[in-house]
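Researcher: Go.
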Amino acid sequence: MLETLTPLRPLGTMARWFNTAGPCRPDLHYMLPPSVRLPKVKRLIEQQGYFVIHAPRQTGKTTTMMTLAKELTASGDYCALMVSTEVAVPLGDDLAQAEEAMLEAWWNAARLSLPEEFHPPAIPSGKTGNQIGLALGAWAEVCPKPVVLFIDEIDALEDRVLISILRQLRSNYPNRPTAFPQSVALIGLRDVRDYKVASGGSERLNTASPFNIKVESLTLSNFTADEVATLYSQHSSGTGQAFSVGAIQLAYELSNGQPWLVNALARQAVEEVVPDPAMEITREHIEEAKEILIRRRDTHIDSLANRLREPRVKSILEPMLAGQPLGDVPVDDIEFVLDLGLCRLDETGSLVIANPIYREVMPRMLAFSTSVSLNYVTPTWLTEQGDIDEEQLLEAFLAFWRQHGQPLLQNVNYHEVAPHIVMMAFLHRVVNGEGRLEREYAIGSDRMDLCLKYREVTLGIELKVWRQGRPDPLAAGLAQLDRYLAGLGLDSGWLVIFDQRESVGVISERTSSEVVPSPGGRKICLIRG
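Model: Structure:
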């Protein structure tokens, strides 16, 4: 069992909560202790090590290191402080102003966070390019305990400012611990060799120099299934509200243990879906929390959606959504989506979307602008009881595609998957908050699978594109859909083939449907458009 954090102050009747905004505090939020997330760090500090911690955004780097700094200072053995380079980022390549801004921010952080006897002296005067080293050295000389410094957002700096700070740390490294910090950790998205040294470009250090004093690079992993259970049990212990085993398992599966998502799912579940602490949180509640989370487009989700327009992200995600190989994509682009936490490498080394929630968010956000323009589509597929009539749904889609497919395709930014996005926009209009639309896609599969769930109806759909110079994908599509429907336990489904070849006529004239058998004997509605 993982250890539980001791609150910094008595809680009284005030319960802690699942935090989704800014760093966590153990007296206010449910969280895992630093010793669990980064078990090697204390040993490195004891050994006077300088090291790197890198991980994607929203994985808890700042929270973990801020909490660790407080623990180290409270132990009486160190003077530990978490600082950031963020104030220097807008100053660009102006080294003098960057050093001044950072030192003022760091000294203010020390004044607010540390006991008075640990406060640094006045910032000494020095030459540009030596101010950081001079000031840190002066602090270490007068501090009654060894100084430990955690520098956050280090890789947000570029060019001469970044190089200068790294060189100052390296040149003063031999003076530790009496005349320079005993231990320094650089915290960011990337390892030191991948720090940018050309503003807006892709050139990198490609070496540990000028920070070749690092003894180790650590990464902050996602939560394990056991850690999710431990985190959620803190809420159960504090409020009496239990999470079922299935709910915990689903939260882990949907998030792949991504810390922000783990917290956000639980927050929605206990505050919005089931605010009564006497009621247990079930799988169904976590599923509902996921839908709320995606619809709300909280800051973290929204920031991911905004990234989808960036060329480097598009170069990766567009072929992934289309089920196509990546082709000759720069390694830098792949590293970029990994650093952002949008994608990950699975057990086989294949590039995949980081978790099922992101897999839902990405195509949904791409289809959003199209979806909101479909209010003119009348839900003729609904019965008087509010259920879906599958025959009427087919007729509605065919009419929609014939009339609106051509102009809508021209407005989609991801051209390779434009038909998929327009169809998803239509299907989102169908589910309209009362059902779910689930997606599956992978590099090289040359397909996208959709599963529409609405009350008692489950409809499996396979999307294929007939590309220029390629054979008719009908046979492959039927075989792939057969396997997909077997996994869903269905004996019928839709195969939609979008014809993207040149000179095949306009959509309004070529769109058709017919019923064909699959290799497994299933009843397939074949739609060509």
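Model: Residues 34-219 form a domain with the Rossmann fold fold (CATH 3.40.50.300).
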